[in-house]
Amino acid sequence: MGHHVHVRLSQGLSVSENGELIEHSACRCGATFTKVFDARGGEPEPES
Questions:
Q1: How many C-beta atoms surround the C-beta of residue 14 within 10 A?
Q2: pTM score, two decimals?
Q3: Could you report the per-residue pLDDT of 1-48, keeping only the tens digit for each?
Q4: How far apart (Å, rounded) are the C-alpha atoms in residues 2 and 5?
Q5: C-alpha pair distances (Å), 25 with each of 2, 10, 22, 28, 47
Q6: Closest CA to 28 of 44, 6, 1
Q7: Cα–Cα distance between 1 and 38 in angstroms, integer?
Q8: Dihedral angle at the C-alpha atoms of 43, 38, 15, 13, nearest 10 degrees?
Q9: Highest taxon of the source (predicted)?
Protein backbone atom coordinates (compact mmCIF):
# COMPACT_ATOMS: atom_id res chain seq x y z
CA MET A 1 0.00 0.00 0.00
CA GLY A 2 1.43 3.41 -0.98
CA HIS A 3 1.83 6.55 1.07
CA HIS A 4 -0.28 9.63 0.34
CA VAL A 5 1.61 12.80 -0.56
CA HIS A 6 -0.32 16.08 -0.36
CA VAL A 7 -0.24 17.98 -3.64
CA ARG A 8 -1.08 21.59 -2.84
CA LEU A 9 -3.22 23.13 -5.56
CA SER A 10 -3.62 26.89 -5.36
CA GLN A 11 -7.09 28.05 -4.36
CA GLY A 12 -6.26 31.76 -4.45
CA LEU A 13 -4.85 34.67 -2.49
CA SER A 14 -6.44 37.18 -0.15
CA VAL A 15 -5.39 40.07 2.05
CA SER A 16 -6.29 40.23 5.75
CA GLU A 17 -7.56 43.34 7.53
CA ASN A 18 -4.00 43.74 8.88
CA GLY A 19 -2.54 43.79 5.35
CA GLU A 20 -1.12 40.24 5.48
CA LEU A 21 -1.06 38.22 2.26
CA ILE A 22 -2.90 34.90 2.72
CA GLU A 23 -2.28 32.00 0.33
CA HIS A 24 -5.00 29.31 0.22
CA SER A 25 -4.35 25.83 -1.18
CA ALA A 26 -5.89 22.38 -1.02
CA CYS A 27 -5.09 18.76 -1.84
CA ARG A 28 -7.46 16.60 -3.87
CA CYS A 29 -7.94 14.45 -0.75
CA GLY A 30 -9.74 17.38 0.93
CA ALA A 31 -6.91 18.67 3.15
CA THR A 32 -6.65 22.46 3.13
CA PHE A 33 -3.66 24.68 3.84
CA THR A 34 -3.23 28.37 4.63
CA LYS A 35 0.06 30.26 4.58
CA VAL A 36 0.23 33.83 5.94
CA PHE A 37 2.94 36.23 4.80
CA ASP A 38 3.74 39.18 7.07
CA ALA A 39 3.22 42.48 5.28
CA ARG A 40 6.38 43.84 6.90
CA GLY A 41 8.61 41.56 4.80
CA GLY A 42 9.12 38.85 7.42
CA GLU A 43 9.17 35.09 6.98
CA PRO A 44 5.93 33.13 6.46
CA GLU A 45 4.10 32.18 9.64
CA PRO A 46 3.79 28.45 10.39
CA GLU A 47 1.17 26.65 8.32
CA SER A 48 -2.16 25.78 9.86
A1: 11
A2: 0.69
A3: 689 999 999 999 999 988 889 999 999 999 999 999 877 765 666 776
A4: 9
A5: 23, 4, 10, 10, 11
A6: 6
A7: 40
A8: 0
A9: Bacteria
